[in-house]
Amino acid sequence: MSANTTDHDNRGVDPNWRQKMLLLVNQQRIESGLHPLKVDERLNSAAQDHSNYHAQINILTHGDAAGTLGTRVSSSGVVWMRLGENAALQLRGLWPGQRR
Q1: Entry pTM
Q2: Which of 10, 16, 26, 65 is most buried, taking the most CB atoms under 10 A from its CB?
């Protein structure tokens, strides 16, 4: 994991949050008849870099100096067909159809 670039610490964060999040996502996927997802550390690294960028500029955005989501993922070495990102968990559910 990358060094924390923010002024606050993460002492209150559960160190297993990624595994727990993936378990919850996969439970929903299986209930919907979909295959479970698995972790790809290349994506984690690209996401952490983008999160560090958010912390540096103190704004949530889908783009940065490394480009769009597609550019960042392709640069990580991942071959993809569809992509999506959640830049603000607190905003989930505010737009119809987010869980389609």
Answers
A1: 0.62
A2: 26
